[in-house]
Design a protein that fits this description.
There is one protein chain. The chain has 5 helices and no strands.
Length: 70
């Protein structure tokens, strides 16, 4: 899916969940692709912060805060 239309259907909650499952729980890309029905390219862009930048930035700020306070 070159146009990344699969990302349009994801709400902010889904994006935060994907980032959490990937960064904290260690889910693999194939697991996330299957669970959320998104393409490899879309997932890579999401995990690299190239799309849904507000969610990506927000998640990283929360993660940093939690690491610093524990």
């Amino acid at each position: 899916m070159d146009n990344r239309s699969d990302l349009i259907k994801l709400g902010d909650e889904d994006v935060y969940l994907i980032l959490y499952l990937w960064k904290v729980k260690g889910y693999s890309s194939p697991e996330l692709m299957q669970q959320f029905s998104i393409s490899r390219e879309s997932l890579d862009d999401l995990l690299d912060g190239h799309v849904r930048k507000d969610c990506y930035k927000g998640f990283n700020q929360i993660e940093k805060y939690l690491v610093e306070t524990h």
